[in-house]
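Private note to self, pasted from the team thread so I don't lose it. Backbone tokens:
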């Protein structure tokens, strides 16, 4: 995590908004390091409207929440930051630094190794890049944390497969 010294989890209730292109490691990071936080994801809930409702419901229940969406622009992030500001909940932004070319590789690997992952089209990456606006503290974030993902493999076979292409 950058800046160095950034806390992964907070002792106080918070909202964390993930920012990153598809297959950049957001969900893996959440599962690996933040399972105690409530998880809000458009991949699971289907629409941003359902995500906003679930985020608000979890914050009202006193839970810390991770919004695990691509969140490329101010508009998409503000749907969540406005709720947290209204509720006086700390807000941080975690930006995943995975380059698009690497994320495309990650996606291809997921397609090869899991029946549950669907192909993400090149168009999805192009749209993400065209909408991307770097997050700033002016949006209401108390901290912007840069996340560089590292791959972990359950066995040597998958590690070799990942490195083949």
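Design output:
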């Amino acid at each position: 995590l950058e800046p160095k010294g950034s806390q992964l989890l907070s002792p106080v209730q918070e909202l964390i908004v993930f920012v990153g292109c598809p297959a950049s490691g957001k969900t893996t990071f959440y599962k690996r390091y933040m399972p105690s936080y409530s998880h809000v994801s458009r991949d699971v809930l289907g629409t941003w409207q359902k995500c906003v409702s679930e985020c608000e419901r979890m914050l009202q229940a006193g839970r810390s929440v991770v919004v695990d969406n691509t969140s490329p622009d101010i508009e998409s992030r503000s749907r969540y930051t406005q709720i947290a500001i209204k509720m006086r909940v700390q807000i941080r932004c975690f930006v995943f630094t995975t380059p698009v070319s690497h994320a495309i590789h990650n996606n291809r690997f997921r397609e090869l190794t899991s029946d549950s992952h669907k192909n993400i089209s090149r168009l999805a990456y192009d749209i993400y890049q065209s909408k991307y606006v770097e997050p700033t503290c002016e949006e209401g974030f108390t901290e912007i944390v840069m996340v560089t993902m590292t791959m972990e493999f359950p066995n040597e076979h998958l590690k070799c497969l990942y490195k083949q292409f």
